[in-house]
Amino acid sequence: MTTASARLLKLALPLIETHGFTREALSLSVLSLPTPLAHPLPDASVTALFGQGDDARRTLVRAWLDDATHKMRADSAPMALGDILKARLKTNEPVLQHLPEAFALLASSSPVLPLDPTPVLKHAAGVANQACWIAHSDARELSWYTRRASVSAIYLAAELHQLTSPRTASAFLDSLLENASHAEKALDETTLFATYVWKSWKGIIKSSGVVF
Predict the structure, then answer these.
(1) Per-residue pLDDT tens over the stretch 61-80
(2) CA–CA dist 208, 104 (Å, integer)
(3) The model's pTM
């Protein structure tokens, strides 16, 4: 990615709240330059800088996720694991209405599978990795890696819960973390809830014109 593309991606991030993960947000990013352009980027320029069609939108989704992870590292003062995960969920709040479609875009990026959950699972694993490192930066034993896998499942369950019930997401996360026996339940919760959300994602993808 060129320096110009990276700079415009950063400027597009604050526009996601109002414009979603769209090519329009990328186009409007040039209006936020220190010396703004007179007009938004033409669509051909968006394609040249960020990719064709929905690939440009996926580029924006990945940039937003990377920025959210960077913020986790930047705010890495000593915190309890639950507080770290709650802070990450809070990062979702301004763009929450756009996240189902964002995850759908990632899930439809495979040229082989019609709908691939791998990118979303990698996202949850990345959050868990950062959260565990911040909470236990000196831990590298096997139990740390095992716990990281459980945290990934718990966070994914909480994030999926957040999509339909934002006000109870924090309490839901607490319920999973406070009782170790809930860790196994989180895996079942994730599977069941993901099935529900998956159907919604398919509807979003169809309405967006993405073929699968």
Answers:
(1) 999 999 998 888 876 567 88
(2) 10
(3) 0.82
Task: Determine the distance from the C-alpha atom of residue 84 to the mean position of all C-alpha atoms in its chain, rounded to a whole number.
Answer: 15
DSSP codes joined into one string, 17-82: HHH-SSHHHHHHGGGGSSS--SSPPPHHHHHHHH-SHHHHHHHHHHHHHHHHHHHHHHT-SS--HH
From residue 166, alpha-carbon distances to 90, 119, 129, 163 in Å are 10, 22, 23, 6
Q: What is the pLDDT of residue 187?
A: 54
> What DSSP state is assigned to residue 96?
G
Confidence of residue 211 (pLDDT cuts 50, 70, 90): very low
Q: Cβ distance 59 to 9 under 8 Å?
A: yes
> Distance (Å, rounded) from C-alpha 11 to C-alpha 36?
11
In 3D, which of 168, 42, 88 has the Cα closest to residue 193? Answer: 168
For residues 26 and 10, give the distance between their C-alpha atoms in angstroms, rounded to a whole number: 10
Separation CA 69–CA 200 (nearest Å): 26
Q: How far apart are CA 20 and CA 164, in angstroms?
A: 18
Cβ neighbour number for residue 43 with a 10 Å cutoff = 13
Q: State the DSSP H helix or E strand holding residue 84, giving kind and residue range, or none if neither.
A: helix 81-92
> Closest by alpha carbon to 162, among 141, 136, 143, 190?
190
Contact (CB, 8 A) for 16 and 98: yes
